[in-house]
Amino acid sequence: MKNVIEINHLTKCYGDVKALDDFHLEVKEGEILGLLGPNGSGKSTCIHTILSLLSFDEGDIRIFNQEMSPSAYSIKAKIGVVFQDVAVFDELNVVENIDYFCGLYIKDKKIRQQYIKEAIELVGLEEFKKFKPKQLSGGLLRRLNIACGIAHKPSLIFLDEPTVAVDPQSRNHILEGIKKLNEQGATIVYTTHYMEEVEQLCHEIVIMDKGRVIARGTNDELKNKISLGEKITIVLNQKEEELISLLKADQQVISIQKENLTLHIAYQGKGNHLADLIDVLRESNIQYQTLFSERPTLNDVFLELTGKQLRD
Amino acid sequence: MTVFKNYFKIAKSFLPTILIYTLIFMSITTITSTSGANQQDYQASRSKVAFINHDCSSPLLDSFQNYLEDHADFVKLNDTQDELLDALFFRKVDFIMIVPAHFTVDFLKGKDVHIETMDVPDSYSSIYAKNLFNEFFNTAHLYLQADIDEKVMLQQIESDLQSHVDVELTNQSSNHQLSQVKQFYNFANYTLLAIIISVMSMIMLSFHNENIQLRHLSSALSYRQINIQLLLGNIVFTLAIWLLYVMISFILYHQTMFSITGLLFMVNSLIFSIFILIFAFFITTLTNNREIVGMVSTVFSLGSSFIAGAFVPQELLSSFVLSIAQFTPSYWFISNNNLIAQISEYNLSSLQPIFLQMGVILAFAFLFYILLQIVFYLKLKR
């Protein structure tokens, strides 16, 4: 698959602060790429720079194999953007807003009307067509914001934290909509600091911190990059020092955290650690209330790579 | 023309504002048009005066009081500072005279003596009462210098001040309408300013919203094209509002408006509207804050209308106020309306001052255009 976006050695400074530091990115046609990072990691700066809304100090940006610039209108015509903050006219209703922003790309009124209809269906605003933005809830407003950004059927879509402060119902609607857009052929760059969304949605994930790419890969690839293989939590009936001694002796155990009768055990590498632990418990006749296992999350990946939590 | 069309979709939401301003404007113009419309003769008005005498009764003061009685109504007040000030504040009285002790004796001896006066500032009635007062004592002073006996002097004053001029209103109908058209356009100073600045700036602020700007900048339409369409929208909007008011003036005063005088009123208001267009554009380039824009719009439209004579005729405003007003285009617009209303012959010498004042309004427009370019350049650079 060919690259839709190619970014090399991109550096963007605000005074002495490097918002983007030798940033590299490739986005393949038809994929959903997630840009994951904590607040202030440079995700929005990255998108604004790619779109030529911000100038940059070094590097080059190519979109659709052409150099991107503020006057590259032929490239911009194929791009849709959904910004973090809602950008709609308060004076216009839902249909009028979508019509206006779609009209910046599509001149033909008939085609536009069809596109508006499809955009409204995609975000589920059929019942709110005549509503003004101030009459919509936060979640519905976000959906309108998305419809305004994608109505013209762009082949490359940037979504900058589109689900911030959105209720679960609207969030699901938005995520389903994004999947549909991708199925229709759009390449999507999705920034967020919600790892669950990235895991659910993205084919490829780029983890950013301090303006740099610190890891890239699929969900599984990223999780395999770290030593943590499995996290097991066990709630005991009573304190069992013997179990702790046994666990400490296990080479696969990375760490044990105690919280009253609860133990959080981190194992390295792949393997069926849960089954092994159940065997140990049975052999030692140790009683427990609850026992469950978790795969590492992207937060664990971020934690191991940077020493910080994603939402720090 | 997506942006241009959208400009008017947004403008549509401000239609109630435009209608309210226009309705208020029309109500006020109708009221002022009907008042005095049937007035066929001239009658001098009477002022309310208070006369406080610390001197003893004398033929001079009696004669003065008799003279005043013919032209003014006496109001009795207690001689306390608070009551006198309250009476002026609540307009119970327009003019107060306080005669000091030994006034008559000292006056007749030719000494420099004064009657203390208090009045309502800038009121017709108080000016009229002051004139009556000055007229009597200036005449008395004149006879006193001729060394005439007091009794003869008072007889002379009485006969002098009894002479009067008959005032007859000629060509009342057309003069009255011309005056109404002048008032219409003077008052339009406020409504044109208020409507164009407030509505245009609110529309522009919607387009200048930072997030919408980001959408525009990342769209397939160039920033230049968007700005050209916005400018076109502003021009059409301004012309539409101007045309609305011109049409109203044609409906109300068609007799005067279908004349060269009417044409001059139209051209003058068009030039003034051009200034407002540039000024409103300048404000919205300066800031994106709706509160600030709203405040500037109100302060500028109301403030300049007050000091430039949109509500109160320029002739009644103090020279200090007018000298400040000269720094606003409203002053030149209203001053030009007054000149146009006075014009009787159309030749170069009579039209020259009108064109000159139009030039001043255009100069203001040009000044703000330059400032607009500077601010625009600085913003773009940033």
TrEMBL record, chain A:
Gene3D superfamilies: P-loop containing nucleotide triphosphate hydrolases. Signal peptide: none annotated. SUPFAM superfamilies: P-loop containing nucleoside triphosphate hydrolases. GO terms for molecular function: ATP binding; ATP hydrolysis activity. InterPro entries: AAA+_ATPase, ABC_transporter-like_ATP-bd, DrrA1/2-like_C, P-loop_NTPase. Residues 5-235 form the ABC transporter domain. Keywords: ATP-binding, Nucleotide-binding, Transport. This is ABC-2 type transport system ATP-binding protein. It comes from Longibaculum muris.
Automatic annotation (TrEMBL), chain B:
GO terms for cellular component: plasma membrane. It is found in: Cell membrane. InterPro entries: ABC-2_transporter_component, ABC2_TM. Residues 12-371 form the ABC-2 type transporter transmembrane domain. It is a multi-pass membrane protein. One of its GO terms (molecular function) is ABC-type transporter activity. Keywords: Cell membrane, Membrane, Transmembrane, Transmembrane helix. This is ABC-2 type transport system permease protein.
